[in-house]
Amino acid sequence: MQAASFLSAPARSVPDIGVGSPNVYAGAQNRRSFGECRVIYWVEIDMPTIGEIEAALEGAASSHHEYEKVYLKGVRDENWPAYYAAFVLGHLGNLDIAPSKLTALLHGVSADNWTMEAAKAIHAASTKSP
Fold first, then answer.
1. Helix residue ranges per DSSP H, the chain
2. Order of strands, edge to edge, in the sheet holding 2-10?
């Protein structure tokens, strides 16, 4: 699955990245308030697979367990979804989902196979059009 990412740069410093290729769209946008022209690039990126998201969630679980054990001295972290969201986004930066939305999504998943169901929910939420 691919999603679009928007990159913006001042027109004077835009590198030649082969505008016109099937995966790149360039257009100009006038910013009248500042009197400058910016070039907006639309680049399609590959989204992580459900398996990659599940692996990142398993890594988050392992890391979070150590965090609770070592830094919190065995006290349960009630804000664990934010920890998991930060871990997953740090490892899979090409997810098209806001950290707050990911945190809420993780908190809402309840299933026997939590990592798989959470991975499916994250994948579905990050591949929807805005």
1. 50-66, 80-91, 99-108, 114-126
2. 2-10, 36-46, 24-31
Q: What is the pTM of this model?
A: 0.64
Alpha carbons 105 and 122: distance in angstroms, whole number:
7
Q: 18-27, 34-43, 74-83, 92-101: lowest mean pLDDT where?
A: 18-27
Return the C-alpha torsion angle 51, 52, 54, 56, nearest 10. 170
Look at residue 116 and give its three-state secondary structure: helix
Segment among 29-38, 39-48, 70-79, 102-111 with least mean pLDDT: 29-38
Structure-block tokens of residue 106: 């993780």
